[in-house]
Amino acid sequence: MRKLIISLVLLAGTVASPLPVNAGGAGDANPDALKYTATAVAGTPGSGTSPKGRDILKGCAIVTGLTPEQLLDYLGGTGQDLINFNPTNLPQDTFYHFISCPVTNFGNINWMVWEVGDPAPPEVVRAVARAAANSSTVPLPTPQTSPDGTRDIPLITQLPTWYWTDPTLWQPDSVTASIPEFGIYVTATVTPTISWWDPGDGSAPITCQAGQLWTPGSNDNDAPCSYTYTATTQHNGTSEPYKLTTTIQWDLTYTCVPANNCTGPPNVPGAIITEVTRDIWVTEIKGLITH
């Protein structure tokens, strides 16, 4: 890159490191995760889908093939201070790409410029990756139990309760964001990897995956995801349900075209977290002893 472009990239604070291939492992806090919550009722497979985020590439000015004079006009139009740039140093036979976005930054500025024929700066690729992540939607699966855990068909203390989510919702999905003018395409793939189940009775959450639907003849010892309640939801003659919560981590991975454009600091979302809560009731079976 020539002197002007080097100055611009340095101003944006470039750091070279790969985008995360599998950011955020099981059990990680994932502080950069997108999080969505919902409330469900028993018997429903899901509570809809997570909302899409804002379109961070909406309204961007995207221009290619600018001459040096046109480039400086566009830069001036952004209101940037160009005192450090000498237009006489720009080679007249070079053309430039330019992007400026009102609602997203490239490093610490909302514009970026580079020479036609050079790879896109990492900041631009990261912005497209964030746009893909913002466009991703995942289902919000309702936590299922056997028995149903409803007021009419409550769970039973001292017996294993099967947990699961609808297996048809436990699937990866992909979405692509792009800037065709620059030949940049980033596909974000969300894949469910792990779930945490909070029984709602004050005990610690248990870790599972999708779980498995209970069917007649199932062996309780074979449940891949289960919990045994020891206390009922009856208290002083009243019944207050527990709040059963399923938290699922959907890892976000990114594939970029061109592949060598997958560079930049890993400050794009590494996961989506969904959290769905429903009421459950628990009772006990009392035995009668006769002599």
Helix content: 10-25%
State the low-pLDDT regions, or none: 1-29
Q: Ends: how far apart?
A: 95 Å
Number of helical stretches of at least 4 residues: 3
Largest sheet: 6 strands, mixed
Helix/strand/pairing class, anyone?
Answer: mainly beta
Report the principal-axis shape: elongated
Q: What fraction of the residues are assigned to beta strands by DSSP?
A: 25-35%
Following the backbone from N to C, one meets helices and strands in this order, namely HEEEHEEHEEEEEEEEEEEEE
Overall pLDDT score:
80
Number of domains: 1
What are the key terms here?
291 residues; mainly beta; 6-stranded mixed beta sheet; 3-stranded antiparallel beta sheet; 18 strands; 34% strand; disordered N terminus
